[in-house]
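User:
I would dearly like some help making sense of a protein record. Take your time, and here it is.
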Amino acid sequence: MRVSHNTKAVSRAGLTETTGMILLTLVLLLLLSGTALSQESSSARSVAMGSSFTVLAQGVDAVKFNPANLGIKAYRENGVELVGVGANVANNAFTLNDYNSYTGAFLTDADKEDILDKIPSEGLQLTAEAEASALTVARGPFAFAIQGFGVADINLSKDVMELVLQGNTFADTIDMTGSYSEAVAIGAASLSYGTSIYTSGTRELAVGVTAKYLYGIAIERVTEMEGMVATWATGLEGSGRLVAQTATGGNGYALDLGATLKLNGRYAVGARIKNVISSMTWTDGTEEHGYNFSFDTMTVDNMEDDHVVSDDYTREIGSFETDLPSVLNVGMAKTSGSLLWAIDWEQGFRRAYGTSSKPRISAGLEWAPVKALPLRAGYCTGGNKPTAFSFGSGFHMPVFYIDYAVVTGATLTGNSSKGLNFAVSTGLHF
C-alpha cells in the first residue's frame, strides 16, 4: 500500500485572510471534482421540448427515455442515430446578466448583499452534464445504443460564500455543513426491448426493459466533509476534514423498466423507472484522499508561531461499490397530427448526482406545418436544476435528419440563463 502524507504549518498576514484561506482550500478541493455527463442530454428533440419525452420517445430515443414505446406498433421507427452530443453547465443562483454585471467590477456592500440574497439557503449548487452517443440503432421492438455519460453535482455552503464576500466577523461561526461533491463518468452499452401485452381497438398497452452494461471511466465522491471556524474575543478556533474516494475504472449493470398505454389514435400516457436496479464495482486506480486542519485561540499576535496545522494524504484502497440513482418519469402526450405536446413529471428517490428528491415538471410543444422543418419549444421547473425555456428545430429529409436545441433561463432571453445548454443529434430513419 502506498501512502503519501504531508504535515505543515501555515501562517498569513491578517486575521480574516487566515480564516478565509483555510476554508477556501476546502472549497478548491471541492471544485476539483471535475465535469460530468448525463444520459439524456444528447437527444436534441427532447432538450428542445423541455425533456418531456417519456411518451413521445420513439425508435432510437426509446433507449434513453422509455423502452415500452418500442412495444407500441404505431410508434416503432427503424433508424440509426449516428451522432448525438449534448452539454449543460448550470448553477442555481446567478444568471448571465448577473455574471456580466459583477465580473471584474468593484463590489459595494449592496452588491455583496445582492449576490448573497440570490444564493438559496441550501447553498450554491453547480452542475455539469454532457453526453456523447456514438451509435444507436432501432429496428422493430429492439434498440441498441453505445453512449458515454455521467453526472456531477457540487454544492457550496452559503456560509462559505458569505465568508468569501464579507470576511469573518466577531461571534460568527462559519460551517461547511450542506457542502458536497459527487462526479462520475461512465460508458454504457444498452439493449432495449418493448412488447405489447394488451390491445383493444385503438387502445394498446406495452411494457419494456433496457439492460445496460456499464464501464466505469472515472469517479470522485466526497465521503466525509466537515469544517467550522468560529471568531471569539480570545481568537479563532476551527477545524475541518475532507475525505474523497477516486477510481479510474470498473464495471457494472443497470436496468430500466417502462410501460406505455396508447389511449387512442391521438393520446398516450407512460411511465419509466430509470436504474430500478444498478450496481457499479470500481476496481482500478482506487484511492482515498484526505485533508485536515485545526487551530485553537489563534490571534494576530500568535499567527507567526506555526499555530495553524494542516495535513493531507493519499493512499490506495480496495475496490468499492456504488449505484446509479433511481428516477421515476411519468408523462402524457398528444402523439399524432402536426401539433404534438407532452407533459412530464420527474421524481428522484434520493438526492444524488444528476437527480433530486424534489419533483421536476416539464412541458413541450412540436409544431410541424412543414414536416421537414419542425419547430419546438419547452419549459421545465423544479428539481435541482434552474427553471428554463428551451427551443429547437431540425431538418428532416426522407432518410437523413439533424436536430438541434438550446436552453435559455426563466425568461425567453439568454440573459436569464443560469448556464449553458445545447444539443445536436443526427442520423438516418427508414
About this structure: The chain has one domain: 3-429. The mean pLDDT is 81.
